[in-house]
Design a protein that fits this description.
Elements: H1 2-44, H2 53-57, E1 64-69, E2 72-81, E3 84-88, H3 89-96, E4 100-103, E5 108-112, E6 117-121, E7 126-129, E8 132-135, E9 141-144, E10 147-151, H4 152-157, E11 162-166, E12 172-176, E13 180-187, E14 191-194, E15 203-207, E16 212-215, E17 225-229, E18 235-239, E19 243-251, E20 269-274, H5 285-290, E21 297-305, E22 312-314, H6 318-326, E23 330-336, H7 346-351, H8 353-369, E24 374-378, H9 387-404, E25 407-413, H10 424-430, E26 433-437, H11 455-466, E27 474-479, E28 481-489, H12 492-497, E29 507-515, H13 516-525, E30 531-533, E31 538-545, E32 548-553, H14 557-569, E33 574-578, H15 587-595
Parallel strand pairs: 1-12, 20-21, 20-33, 21-23, 23-24, 24-25, 25-26, 26-27, 27-33
Antiparallel strand pairs: 1-2, 2-3, 3-10, 4-5, 5-6, 6-7, 7-8, 9-10, 11-12, 13-16, 13-19, 14-15, 16-17, 17-18, 21-22, 28-29, 28-32, 30-31, 31-32
Length: about 600
């Protein structure tokens, strides 16, 4: 009996010892469950953190405004002046309307339409359209230090833009320059738009049931999130479960772009340049055109930029014009920046409104005085610094040409990365014709001998130009000349002077330009034989004389025929040639096969 009681006591003590252990185990499980719950809650519960509006819009001062342009947050800011949003002239040019021109030297903002020049002066609420003055209740252009600001309200007068200024908490302006149909979504229950696609991303703004959001394209996979823009200017992400009915919203610009009218001939232009270096050369015009056939247009080199104030030298001749008109040949007088290049600066002439407009006035006055049919611009020393002023010059000149029925043509290098600033696209809008100088593939300063105009090089120049300019405005120019290249071995002294880093060039290369008959005589004298080069589309010849090697890629009937054929192939406006006097008479029969 005593033994049984002892066993019961031992069992009781065992149960009493197990109870604390069980409690500890339960507590451990509860703690672990709590940790897991906290972890899962932290991982899967939406963050309530909010990004401040100043942080999101990156606005630091009271007169600054964030810019949302075509549903994209921009890294530049607008400026609020007297309650109106302004942007810098750089922003205006780069993003809104590149046809505005800011003259920082004379503090003028200009805009051209097809027939009018519009001018706004810094600090004035009056601007002029042609000679008519208009007044606004704001100032179109203001300057702060070296930075000029333009009112969006003024820009809107001449640009297809819509904008909305929002000033609650943080200044921001939503600008639209692209119009059409946008996808929308209606919010079906209250929610948040977040900075990134994820519940842990900070909240940008709240949205309520019934709000309209603008659905934006997202290149990356963001799962069950959608990129949106809110009506108050935030661009972020919202979970799809908050979105209801999809829809569309169509917007249209309330600005009508003016139509640029141009003079367009109803025939294929057959043009050539006539190099006139002095007044006496004008007297040879009858002899010059008598050697041509089917010539529709002649461009004498008559006008020369003289100084940085927009004045010109002139070799124009009324007798010359009369002779040409009597032979049904139009005269497009050329103006160039080459003759006085050492004493003039294109940027000085073209960037200042006073000198630029003096140049325009001088050219138009000469065109009217001598009854010219057209003006041909041949500015070959334009660089990136003078490019904007150059294009503005063409715009302003085109206005006066358009008002006076004068044809405006512009000579251009073959398109390349280093001359993109010539802005052929804008030239193609304001000018009547754009002429490709389809030669100088290899030129006087080239370090190696080569063709002046190989066929594929010419073809590529046309194709690149047509990416920016309509074919009916494009004239391709061909060379009536070729270059005879001379190669002589470098002397030991010349080789010794070269740096180890220089590319090894064994020969000294030079060249001289010759007309068609002149080069044939040289080849005949030296017994050189010609062979057809399929790659360049030209006859090639070489010979050795006095230890020097002479090479030439010829321009003659067959090579010119290949180039002239491109006029029809690409439906171009015509052909031109540099220069009269270099050709032989038979070449005109070749050209006429392709321009009639």
């Amino acid at each position: 009996m005593a033994t049984t009681k002892r066993k019961r006591r031992r069992r009781s003590r065992g149960r009493r010892n197990a109870a604390p252990m069980l409690a500890v185990l339960v507590l451990a499980v509860l703690i672990l469950a709590g940790i897991m719950f906290a972890f899962l809650y932290e991982k899967y519960s939406p963050s309530k953190e909010r990004m401040s509006w100043n942080t999101y819009f990156e606005v630091t001062t009271g007169d600054e405004a964030a810019v949302i342009l075509n549903d994209q947050m921009m890294d530049f800011k607008a400026k609020i002046i007297d309650g109106e949003p302004y942007v810098t002239t750089d922003t205006l040019y780069d993003y809104l309307n590149s046809r505005f021109y800011w003259d920082s030297q004379e503090n003028l903002l200009l805009y051209t339409t097809p027939t009018e020049l519009i001018t706004a002066s810094v600090g004035s609420n009056t601007y002029t359209v042609a000679k008519q003055s208009y007044t606004e209740d704001y100032t179109p252009v203001k300057v702060d230090g070296d930075t000029a600001y333009v009112a969006l309200k003024y820009i809107q007068k001449y640009t297809g833009i819509q904008y909305e200024l929002m000033t609650d908490e943080v200044n921001r302006v939503n600008i639209k320059t692209k119009f059409g149909t946008a996808e929308t979504a209606t919010v079906k229950k209250n929610g948040n738009v977040r900075y990134r696609a994820g519940i842990k991303s900070p909240i940008l703004t709240d949205v309520a049931k019934g709000d309209i959001l603008y659905v934006l394209e997202e290149k990356e996979d963001v799962g069950d999130w959608t990129k949106v823009r809110t009506s108050n200017g935030f661009i972020g992400y919202i979970r799809n479960k908050y979105l209801g009915q999809k829809g569309e919203e169509t917007t249209e610009s309330n600005y009508t772009e003016p139509e640029y009218t141009n003079i367009s001939k109803d025939y294929t232009i057959n043009m050539a340049w006539h190099q006139v270096t002095n007044a006496d050369a004008n007297s040879k015009v009858l002899e010059t055109i008598a050697n041509t056939k089917g010539l529709t247009t002649i461009s004498p080199t008559w006008f020369f930029l003289k100084d940085d104030d927009g004045n010109i030298d002139s070799l124009a001749s009324q007798t010359y014009v009369n002779y040409c008109h009597q032979n049904n040949i139009e005269v497009w007088a050329l103006v160039e920046d080459i003759t006085h290049k050492d004493s003039i600066t294109d940027k000085e002439i073209l960037s200042r409104t006073s000198s630029r407009q003096r140049l325009v006035s001088n050219l138009i006055a000469k065109a009217i005085e001598f009854d010219l049919d057209g003006i041909n611009i041949d500015f070959e020393y334009i660089n990136e610094e003078s490019a904007k002023g150059y294009v503005e010059f063409l715009r302003e000149l085109s206005i006066m040409c358009r008002l006076n029925g004068i044809i405006l043509s512009v000579d251009n290098y073959r398109p390349a990365g280093h001359n993109r600033f010539y802005n052929r696209a804008e030239q193609g809008v304001v000018a009547d014709y754009l002429i490709i100088m389809g030669y100088d593939e290899h030129y006087a300063g080239s370090e190696e001998a080569g063709s002046v105009a190989s066929i594929n090089w010419v073809r590529e120049g046309i194709e690149e130009t047509l990416k920016e300019v309509p074919a009916e405005k494009v004239i391709n120019a061909v060379p009536f000349y070729t270059r005879l290249w001379e190669e002589r071995p470098k002397t030991a002294e010349e080789l010794a002077q070269e740096s180890d880093t220089d590319d090894y060039v064994p020969n000294v290369v030079s060249s001289k330009a010759y007309g068609m008959d002149a080069i044939d005589k040289i080849l005949a004298t030296n017994g050189a034989e010609k062979s057809w080069d399929e790659t360049t589309g030209q006859y090639y010849a070489e010979y050795v004389s006095d230890g020097k090697t002479y090479k030439v890629w010829l321009e003659e009937e067959e090579s010119i025929a290949l180039k002239a054929a491109l006029i029809k192939e690409y439906n171009l406006a015509g052909i031109s040639a540099w220069k009269l006097g270099f050709e032989r008479q038979d070449i005109w029969d070749t050209i006429l096969k392709y321009v009639n």
